[in-house]
From TrEMBL:
InterPro entries: ABC_transp_permease, BCAA_transport_permease. It comes from the Bacteria. This is Branched-chain amino acid transport system permease protein. The lineage of its organism: Bacteria, Pseudomonadati, Thermodesulfobacteriota, Desulfobacteria, Desulfobacterales. It is found in: Cell membrane. It comes from Desulfosalsimonas propionicica.
Length: 287
């Protein structure tokens, strides 16, 4: 029983990270209809920015997290302005190629600046709790609590603020929003900033637990796309639920069978669920 509870806790922790990353990705995909393949690499850059501000500059973990979120939000704005906005009304293949170019650039940048070796952010909360026979790290609890706070905060932002309502209006009808006087370009930049900032939050929360490496964004970016498809394209509840489902499948499969095959379980679940419900858990069939 302890093994089961331990793997459930680990799965919720991994799922919290996946849910945050997928949430940022689905915002861009669902609202702006842009497949930002570089989203996983923005997550990687968020971890390195935390390392730079928190460790290299000596500002500490929490100030490093704040500066990482601010800087990556600005990177998101620049990415939208100089990479994706010029491709508006162009064939989708152009955005695909631009996204791949962006992810290659970010990975090369990390290699040049920080090198290929793994880096570790010191754990600011190394304390361990024991509850019901399972081991709970404080930092892992912070990952879960941070994800819940971010999801609730983002929901309130989208539903209770003028900017959130504007973003939803653009998502529902871009041309109609333009006709009502909404500055669509500003909404696009804001959406990219929020998306990149969420990636920085996820990376900053998980970085004290795992090593940083330039390649860490590739597999996570792929999993984020799996989660977005699993939950239903553009569905925020689907991205959240899909992230937790994927985390639990990986943790339980890794704990009971082999951690070496945890990615096999994740992608196997995608194939199984899509064979039953091709539109994803919350996706709607187009008519």
């Amino acid at each position: 029983m302890e093994l089961f509870l331990q793997q459930v806790f680990n799965g919720i922790m991994f799922g919290s990270t996946y849910a945050i990353v997928a949430l940022g990705l689905t915002l861009v995909m669902g609202i702006l209809n842009i497949p930002n393949f570089a989203h996983g690499h923005l997550y990687m850059l968020g971890g390195y920015l935390l390392y730079y501000f928190g460790v290299t500059m000596g500002l500490g973990y929490w100030f490093g997290l704040i500066f990482s979120v601010i800087c990556l939000g600005l990177v998101g704005v620049l990415m939208e302005r100089f990479i994706y906005r010029p491709l508006n009304n162009q064939p989708h293949i152009n955005a695909f190629i631009a996204a791949i170019g962006a992810l290659l650039f970010l990975e090369a940048l990390a290699l040049v600046v920080w090198g290929p070796q793994g880096l570790r952010v010191p754990n600011p909360h190394p304390q361990i709790l024991h509850f019901l026979g399972i081991t709970i790290g404080i930092q892992r609890l912070l990952v879960i609590a941070g994800a819940v706070a971010l999801i609730v905060g983002l929901h309130l932002f989208m539903k209770k603020t003028i900017m959130g309502t504007t973003i939803e209006a653009v998502a529902q009808n871009r041309e109609g929003a333009m006709l009502t006087g909404i500055n669509v370009n500003r909404v696009s930049a804001m959406t990219f900033a929020i998306s990149a900032a969420t990636a920085a939050v996820a990376a900053s929360l998980i970085s004290p637990i795992f090593m940083l490496s330039p390649a860490m964004g590739a597999i996570l970016g792929m999993k984020a796309f799996v989660i977005v498809i699993l939950g239903g394209m553009g569905s925020i509840p689907g991205a959240i639920l899909g992230g937790y489902i994927l985390g639990l499948i990986e943790a339980l499969g890794g704990g009971y069978i082999s951690a070496a095959y945890k990615d096999v379980f994740a992608f196997g679940a995608l194939i199984l669920i899509l064979s039953i419900k091709p539109t994803g858990l919350f996706g709607k069939r187009e008519v």
